[in-house]
Design goal:
It is a single chain. The protein is mostly beta strands. 4% of the residues lie in helices and 47% in strands. It has one helix and eleven strands, in the order βββββββββαββ. The strands form two sheets. Strands 2, 4, 5, 6, 9, 10 and 11 form a seven-stranded mixed sheet that branches. A four-stranded antiparallel sheet has the order 1-3-8-7, with no helix packed on it. Strand 4 and strand 5 form a beta hairpin.
Length: 127
């Protein structure tokens, strides 16, 4: 079992930056594909970014160039650096972990891929 706990979300103004953290426990995440999803009111939960166990990263188009996903296996933690936040980035951000060995955008972008989920951290961006 892997337990995931997100932190770092808060109320910010448009243009601000935040670093979200996802701390894992129970097992080392070095062999897991890890991702950030977000769920905004009235929308479906969708992938923001993913980092494979080999270090390959994937981003949804709207955040490419603004957000950066990273992982520190020694600290058993994953991060999402979010820059130039906009009101449309307001959502609950969830981290997720997958022990499988699939690959490719379709695999990483599907929430069904991931076995373990955190409880989420709220990011609210005011205009």
């Amino acid at each position: 079992q892997v337990q995931l706990v997100e932190s770092g979300g808060r109320l910010v103004q448009a243009g601000d930056s935040l670093r979200l953290s996802c701390a894992a426990s129970g097992r080392t995440i070095s062999g897991y594909n890890m991702s950030w999803f977000r769920h905004a009111p009235g929308q479906e939960r969708g992938l923001v970014a993913a980092v494979s166990w080999t270090g390959t990263t994937s981003y949804t188009h709207s955040v490419k160039g603004w957000f950066t996903i990273s992982r520190d296996n020694a600290k058993n933690t994953m991060y999402l650096q979010t820059n130039k936040l906009a009101p449309e980035d307001t959502a609950i951000y969830y981290c997720a972990a997958d022990s499988g060995r699939g690959y490719g955008s379709a695999y990483y972008f599907s929430s069904a891929t991931y076995e373990y989920w955190g409880q989420g951290t709220q990011v609210t961006v005011s205009p």
